[in-house]
Amino acid sequence: MIKPQLLLITTATILLSSFAHASVESQLSTCAAVQDKLERLICYDNLANSLPTRSPNSQVPTTETVAVASSTAVVTSAASTQKNAVEEFGNLEKSKEEQAIDTIHLTVSKVKKDAYGALKIEFTNGQVWKQTDSRRFKLKPEQAVFIKTAALGSFTLGIEDRNTTIRVKRLK
């Protein structure tokens, strides 16, 4: 048998907690309606301070502050910028905004094939590119080629007198 006093206390506790929860929700919606950012923050802070504090046994999540250093841009002449853009063409680490060039013209220094038959092409400026598709493509040293950007961050290599290209990626 349930004692009437215990039933009354349990019911009163449930009603008070539901009213308190509804009160917090209404106060949150009131704070959210405030237009000024500072006043809205003050409203949320006042609401948080009015809530009962946690017991010392409960864990409070900790927050970390991370400082981010701002980068500075260096302004250089147009000629050196163009030279750097050609040297950095094909490097995937660089952002797309930094790569203003979409096609470069190079001269082949060495051509090698790997174990799978893919071409490894070294150029006179020191860049090394590797074929990523399986198409046949003949190249000779001292031959002029172009490399242009293709879809989805890939690159194609071709020769002006041929209508075919191969997909390549930059190694060095």
Helix content bin? 25-40%
Q: Shape, please?
A: elongated
Span between termini = 84 Å
Number of strands: 6
Strand content: 15-25%
What is the succession of H and E elements?
HHHEEEEEE
Mean pLDDT: 76
- Rg measurement, Å: 34 Å
Q: Spans of 5+ residues with little confidence (pLDDT < 50)?
A: 65-76
| Biggest beta sheet attributes | 6 strands, antiparallel, barrel
Q: So how many helices?
A: 3
Spatial ordering of strands, largest sheet = 1-2-3-6-5-4
**What structural class should be given to the helix and strand makeup?**
alpha+beta
Structural commentary:
With 172 residues, the protein is of the alpha+beta class. Helices cover 31% and strands 21% of the residues. A six-stranded antiparallel β-barrel has the order 1-2-3-6-5-4. Helix 1 (4-32) packs antiparallel against helix 2. The protein starts with a helix and ends with a strand.
